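Target protein
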Amino acid sequence: MEKENLFKWKHYQPDIILLTVRWYLRYNLSFRDLVEMMEERGLSIAHTTIMRWVHQYGRELDERVRRHLKPINDSWRVDETYIKVKGQWMYLYRAVDSEGNTIDFYLSKPRDHRAAKRFFKKALWSFHVSKPRVITVDKNPSYPMAIEELKNEKMIPVGIQIRQVKYLNNIVEQDHRFIKKRVRSMLGLKSFSTATSVISGIEAMHMVKKGQLVLWDKSVQNQVKFIHELFGVAA
C-alpha cells in the first residue's frame, strides 16, 4: 500500500502516527501515557485514536519489516507461551534460531498438532527463513506429529533432526519474556483480531531491537529512519 492510502483521512501527520505506534509497541506505555506525552508536544490526541492506530498499523509494520530481515540459521528453537485474550488463555507459538533471532510467531486458540503445523507452515513461508536442519522442541507431543505430516507433504527435509531437550530451549523461553512483559502491562487484549495485530507489531519492534534488520548502521536513529522509509514517510 502507498503512503496516501495508508494514511488517507488521518487528521495527524504520518510521522506522528508512526511515533505513537512505535513507542506503544516497544515500551511499557499505556495509551493514556502517550496522550500526555503528545500533549507536551502541543498535540491533543484521544487515547482511543492511538489505540486504533496501533490496531491498524501493528500488522502492517510486521509485514513490511520482515521483508528486510537478515537470514536466520537452520537450528530452530520452538516453544509456545500463554497470552490472555478477552479473559481466555490462548497460545502464542514462537521460534528463534540458535542465536536468538526471531523466526516467526503464531497466535492460536487451540493447542494441538494442527495449530503447531499451521505455525510451522507460516514460519517456512517467511522471507528470511530457510528450511531447518534441526528443530528443538519441548515434550509437547503435537510437535513431532506436525513435523511428520510436513515431511510427508515434502515441506521440510525428511532427514530433519528433532530434539526434545528442555535446556536447549532456554533461549526461546528467555525471548518470550519481552513479549510477555509488554502484553502484561496492557489493560487487556479485547479480541483475537486485535490481539493478532498488536502482537504482530510487538514482535516486529522486538526484531528491530534485536538488530535483525539488514542495516549497516544499527543505531536507533537509523532504525527509525528505516521504518519511516518502509511507510514512505520522510524522516
Notes: Residues 3-68+190-230 form one domain. DSSP finds nine helices and five strands in the chain.
